[in-house]
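ARCHIVE CARD
SHELF: 3
SLOT: left
DATA:
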Amino acid sequence: MNKKELRAKYKALRQELSADEIEDKSLAIANKMLQLDIWEKTYFHLFLTIEEQKEVETEFVLQILAGKDKEIVVAKSNFDTLEMTNYLLTDNTKFQKNEYNIYEPVDGIEVPNAKIEVVFVPLLAYDKLGNRVGYGKGFYDNFLSKCPEDVIKVGLSFFEPEETIDDVSPTDIRLDYCVTPTTSYSFQ
């Protein structure tokens, strides 16, 4: 399937999930994540859930990161340049929803891309090679291309991988891992 077909398929599959299923599956993903070999790192970039899109609830991941005393980085998106500015999450970080229902920091301590060691990547679908399908704007591929070469990219998904994505682009950046409620896939 191509990206357009996969976006439609997985948006529809997500819409079938109840709030309880999303919460249960998200908690299972967070627990499964604990098995990954990433916890010696310090700077973790975390996407904030878009509830309207029925995304993986990242609050559980946030709690794990805080409990492990990690530096948590969150992004603010610029839809004109398709770039993200990253901010350190602190007790003083104030958030507001943008026009796409994404919670974003209003301001704060900016974190350069070079500091980021692990990125939790939102996705709609992915394949057995670690290629992913997002919403199609290219924010994460753009951002990841500016991170250190050894940054660890972890996708979070309610679903199992597709065999392949037909129209992968040379600018698409592959995942290192994808975590589902039942399995952690490694693409390294």
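SLOT: right
DATA:
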Amino acid sequence: MTDRHPLRPFIVDPFDYTAPSFSALLRQAVPEAMPQMGDVHNLPAHVEGTTIVATTYAGGVIIAGDRRATAGNLISKRDMRKIFQTDRLSAVGISGSAGPAIELAKIFATELEHYEKVEGSELSLEGKANKLASMVRGNLPLAMQGLVVVPLFAGFDPRHDEGRIFDFDVAGGRYEEKRFSATGSGSLHARASLKARWEAGLTADAAVDLAVASLWDAADEDSATGGPDTIRGVYPIVAQIDADGYVERDEDDIAERARVVAEARSSRLSGGGAETSPRPNANP
């Protein structure tokens, strides 16, 4: 007797370990219920980091990130960390899907530590950038499903006695930027701000001012980028990397610099004159 049950094609023996998984079975029976490869719109909202900037100065590099994270059209986190120290002379900033990005940053730091312990010496900055590129490339299958991770890598190169910046694409392409770079949803506006103000021979303090101002410009135009939050006391994380190593600027220092930027822009908008701060190479 023929079994004509309408669900027979989709019913599998519960002890048949060669049968597809439940998600595969559901995709076969009700394909519209499952997100398809590359179909970002069918994915549930996930937490995303936004804007990271980096700029070189005379003797090192500054890398900074805003603190806002979004989930769809909602603000998910207001104080998220997006800058991670990866070893004594380098750091990575994350943008894109927060979960995979944070995991990538932590694994990358562990890989560098492991290399140093096994080899007895630090990997070159070029080698670190190449390693990170391969890790980003390994995330490509997830990126095709909408879980994109695009880091920004910065560090001090003792071989050349200078700060260097590397950015990446979703396929693991690695590109060096000699002056400044930005990534994330507000990168277009941050990069324009950096381009307008950057100049050769910046001091460390001037580079910090430049990074804070560029994040402010990004937040002013991009809703996913968070500006300085004076009510909650949340300010961008700004790290300085030079021959002495990685150090994060004190939050009170960043708050004061943000206040100076705000006052300068308020004066300009109220007709008090052209914006003059931050000025390249000017001491705060």
